Model the fold of this input.
Amino acid sequence: MSEEKPTEPIVPQQQRLYANVDNPTIHAVIKSLFSFENEKQAYGRIKSIKRQFVTSKQAETSENSHSIILWILGYEVSEEEAALGYKGNFACLSVAPKGGDKFTIKATKIQSELSFHPQRNRRTGKHPDWGHPILRDIYKKRVYPTLEAA
Done:
């Protein structure tokens, strides 16, 4: 008789979301509330955060990297930044000593242009698609000599 191995149920991969200051994990990172016995545990938590949230495309890092860059909704947005349309900021998450033999994960704000932010207030305009080449031709009322040319 052959012994059958139990199969694990197939679970769809969890969709990664943008980080938010209201998320308990992100809140703990921002306030440096995590406490790890060694660096290996802290790096393991960073890998877990990397799997859970969308990381920055500007600084794609390898799997072996010990720090990640996240865009965090509501993270250190000043009144001036909010007036310009910022909804959050980028942060570099890295391992730091906490005191004694303990380690924590620390978030450091990274300044970047608003155009690189994944969520930002859009400029208002008459119609956002008028920059498309086909719509520009329609707006200019361009006439083509043949159907193929059009």
